[in-house]
Amino acid sequence: MTHPLAGVVVLGTLVVVGALAATTASTHTPAGSTLLELGPATGMLFKSITHQGVEYKYVVHVPRDYDAAKKWPTIVFLHGAGECGTDGSKQVVQGLGAAVLMKPADWPFIVLLPQKPDVKKQWEDYDAPVMAMLDSAKQEYSVDASRIYLTGLSQGGHGTWTLAGNHPDVWAAIAPICGYVNFKRDGGVDRDAAAAIADKVKGLPIWTFHGEADDAVKPEQTRAVVDELTKLKADVKSSFYPGVNHNSWDKAYREEKLGAWFLSHTKK
């Protein structure tokens, strides 16, 4: 049988944001000193994979108290248009990455933060590399396969809908933020597309977020899918913020108890 990571090459790791590099005992410890042997690297870790001959950069956040002896819940975060590129780091500063750094106690998760190279393409165009990153994390870390969650903002909110629909058996719960069904400048919604998305994700616990004053992605984009999910009697709830424009993610990630809500769901 071909290994699920065949064709995927995991490259070296650069450790940042206070991450600890693993070390081994030295045979030249000065007399009277104490050698502290550190564990696996933690913090925000720069990584990359090569998938079908193309390099993709991403970041993994490993909690400071990470212990491979226990299974860890894991979140995949999909960023928005402003963080697209190939630098491998911008996706950390907006959205979930910033919330994790500001209040890590609220986010006791391994967090994967892929970077989408091309702003003109959608996250579904990078479905295979994202899932390869998740497979790599499962190999490298003690990931609890029954507690893997998906969230994202704007383009990543759309990506949350689509990747959740492509792999409904992977996720324990999802949280799309100011996402869209189809992007139209006039804010119009393809109702058939909304119904198709709802049908694919109807078995998942879902918490959606959107600003009522969003003029970049109209809140009707989220409402259309929620309406279809409600018809299907799905487990869905929504938070619509009056007076909030496109940035509804700071409220979702920093003010809501989203991390605790994720942990309340385990994949059936």
Q: In words, what does this structure look like?
A:
This protein is an alpha/beta fold and 268 residues long. 25% of the residues lie in helices and 24% in strands. Strands 1, 2, 3, 4, 5, 6, 7, 8, 9 and 10 form a ten-stranded mixed beta sheet that branches. The radius of gyration is 19 Å and the shape is globular. The N terminus is likely disordered.
List the helices and strands and how they pair.
Elements: E1 8-10, E2 14-16, E3 43-51, E4 54-62, E5 72-78, H1 96-102, E6 110-114, H2 127-140, E7 143-153, H3 155-166, E8 173-177, H4 191-201, E9 206-211, H5 220-231, E10 236-241, H6 249-254, H7 258-263
Parallel strand pairs: 5-6, 5-7, 7-8, 8-9, 9-10
Antiparallel strand pairs: 1-3, 2-3, 3-4, 4-6
Helix pairs in contact: 3-4, 4-5
- Radius of gyration using CA atoms only: 19 Å
Beta-strand residue percentage: 15-25%
In whole angstroms, the N-to-C terminal distance is 27 Å
Helical content, roughly?
A: 25-40%
Average pLDDT number: 88
SS-based structural class?
Answer: alpha/beta
The DSSP helix count reads 7
Number of strands: 10
Give the SSE string. Answer: EEEEEHEHEHEHEHEHH
